[in-house]
Amino acid sequence: MIKPSSVKFISQELEETFESLQEKDFIKKSIRRAIEDLKQNAFCGIQVPKKLFPNEYIIKFKINNLWKYDLPNGWRLLYTITVENEVELISAILEWFNHKDYERKFKY
Question: Which CATH number is 92's domain given?
Fold first, then answer.
């Protein structure tokens, strides 16, 4: 199922963190590519089973779905999909981190 979406950061602080990355930083380039992919298809990531959702995401962001987008070098981008005005999909970026921090967050 291919569904285009708008892409936003879950908070102004997260967007500012992204913007503060150096332009040549591979992670900034990778996130930009992920954003373009999400604009084309909100469902291009891998859906995370609900039983694996970190409690902090449920409490802080009140999510009911969670998706993982694999970035290069073992980095991960996490996002949730919401609906605005009952028609427009929004892919909201929650966080990105390296594989070690991802495993810690998900208690692998």
Answer: 3.30.2310
Using 70 as the pLDDT threshold, list the residues of the chain that sit under it: none
Residue among 64, 86, 84 at smallest CA distance from 8 = 84
Residue 30 CA to residue 36 CA, distance in Å, equals 10
- 99, two tokens: 């594989």
pTM over 0.85: yes
Give me the number of domains the chain comprises.
1
Rounded Cα distance between 79 and 95, Å, is 7
Tokens of 107: 């208690």
In a domain, 29, yes or no: yes
